[in-house]
Amino acid sequence: MNIKSLLSRFVLVALLILPAAMVNAQAEATAEADLDAGKTLFRNYCATCHVTDMKTDLTGPALGGVEERWSDYPEEDLYSWIRNSQAMIQAGHPRAVELWEEWQPTQMNNFLQLTDQEIKNILGYIDGVYTETYGPKPASDKTAEDGGVAVQQGPSKYLYWILAFVLAALALILARIISNMNYMLKLKDGDTTARRKSLVEILTSKGVIAFVVFALVVLGGYTTVNNAISLGRQQGYEPEQPIKFSHETHAGLNQIDCQYCHDGARRSKHSVIPAANTCMNCHTAIKVGSNYGTAELTKIYASIGWDPNEDTYIEDYENMSRDEIKQIYSRWIANSYTTLDDNLKERGMDIEEVVDKQWEGIVGALTNRATGDNKIAGPIEWVRIHNMPDHVYFNHAQHVSVGKVACQTCHGPVEEMEKVYQYSPLSMGWCINCHRETEVQFEDNEYYKSYELYHEQIQAGTRDAVTVEEIGGLECQKCHY
C-alpha cells in the first residue's frame, strides 16, 4: 500500500470520526430538557396565545399537564401537533380532532423550524411552571459575561480540543509508520543509502504541510461563516446601561406608551433613542426616583446641564470646570437627603458618603467608553441591544404604522422588564416564519386599499385572511435590496 493511499484513508477516517463525535457530544449535552432555554422559546413562540401561568385559558388552552393529556399516544404525536396541528387534524388524529372541535375556528400556528430538543425544552418549562418546581436561577449562577441571563450551554469547548489533539496524535503516528515502511522498502530494494526520517523531517514534509493548510482553510471558513450567521443573533443579551432605566416602572407601572419615548418607530426606519429632552418632560417635576432616589436622575440632569436646585438650565454649562459642576449636583443630592439623615445614620451612612458615591456614579455613567473622555456635559451613551446586520433592511414604520404590529411582538413584554434584554432571536428564519403566519390587518387600513382582489374575496367569504407572505413578504429584495 503506497503513501497516498494511506493518507487518503486516514483523512477519510478522520472526516468520519470527528463529525460523529461532535454529534454524539451534542446529543449528550442536550439530552435533558433545558428549562431556561424552554422559557425563552415559550416567550418567542407560545406566549402570544397561551397564559404564562400554564393554568388559565386564553386564545389557546392552558398548557399545564399537556404531556399527560397526550399520554395515550406516542410522544412523536405531540411533537407533530406542535409543529403542524392542521396536518394532524386533516389526517384524522383523534386527539387533534378533539382539540379542533373544542377550539375552532382558532388555528394554532405552525412551528416547523422547532427541533425535538427545543420542543422538549418548552415542554419541560411548561411542566416546571405548572408544578411550581421551576423558578429563577440563584444569583451565583449569573455572570457578568451573560448579563445575568441564562445561556443555553452546548458541548464543552474542551471536548473539541481533546478531539483535535487525538486526531493530531493519530496523524503523527501514521506519518511515522509510513516513514518506517518507506525505509524498510528501500532496504529491501537494496538501497544502502536509505535512512529513517527524523520527526522534524516528517512534520515539515510536503504532505503534512498540505494537510495542515487544508485543515486551517476549512476551520477558517467554518468560523467565518458561523460568525457571520450569528451576527446580531444574541438572544438574551442584557447589557448594563449607564443609567438604570426601568421599563417596568415607566411602561408597566406608569403605562407610558412606547412611542412617547421611541417616537421614531411610527414614522421612520429607526425607533430612535429618546433624547434627554424627552426625559425632562416629566423629570423637571419628578426629581426623585421611586427605586434609586436621586442617583440615576441626577445623571440625566448632569448630561444636559439642568440645575434641579433652581429649576433652570445652567448658562455656559459646557465650559464649566469639573469642580463647579460637582458643587451644583452635590448640593442637590445633599439637600434631597436632608429629611432622611436619621435613617441614613442608622444604616451607617452619612450625607457626605452618599454624595461621593452618587457623584462617582455620575462620572462613570457619562464617561466615553471608547475614548475615556470623562467630561460630564454631553449625550448619554446607551448600550445598543438590538443590532441587525448591515445587509438587512428593517423599517419600524412599515411594521408599526402600516402593519399595526405591537412592539411586544418583537421586543417581548418590555413593560415587565426591569432591565431590557434581546427577547427575540432576530434570525432570518424567525422573520420569515412571522411573515408566513401573520395576518395583514386589511380592515380600515388605507395602505392596503389597492389589494382589491383580496378585499373582494374577504367580503365574499372565500378568504378569511391575508398573510404577509401573500403580499410579497417573502420576496428577497424586500429585506435585501
Protein architecture, described:
This protein has helices spanning 3-29, 35-45, 66-69, 75-83, 85-90, 94-103, 116-130, 157-188, 199-203, 206-229, 247-253, 258-261, 276-283, 297-304, 322-336, 341-346, 351-365, 396-402, 407-411, 428-437, 452-460, 476-479, and strands at 306-307, 312-313. The chain is an all-alpha fold. Among the domains are: 3-27 and 156-229; 31-141, Cytochrome Bc1 Complex, Chain D, domain 2, CATH 1.10.760.10; 427-481, no CATH class. The longest helix is centred in the middle third of the chain and has 32 residues, at 157-188. The protein is extended and about 105 Å long. The relative contact order is 0.08.
Main traits of this protein?
mainly alpha, extended, 22 helices, Cytochrome Bc1 Complex, Chain D, domain 2, two-stranded antiparallel sheet, 481 residues
Compute the number of helices. 22
Shape: extended
Question: What is the N-to-C succession of helices and strands?
Answer: HHHHHHHHHHHHHHEEHHHHHHHH
- Mean pLDDT value: 82
Q: How much of the polypeptide forms β-strand, as a percent range?
A: under 5%
**pLDDT < 50 runs, ≥5 residues:** 15-30, 136-154
Could you tell me the CATH topology label of the domain at 31-141.
Answer: Cytochrome Bc1 Complex, Chain D, domain 2
Characterize the main sheet. Answer: 2 strands, antiparallel
Secondary-structure arrangement, i.e. CATH architecture of the domain at 31-141: Orthogonal Bundle
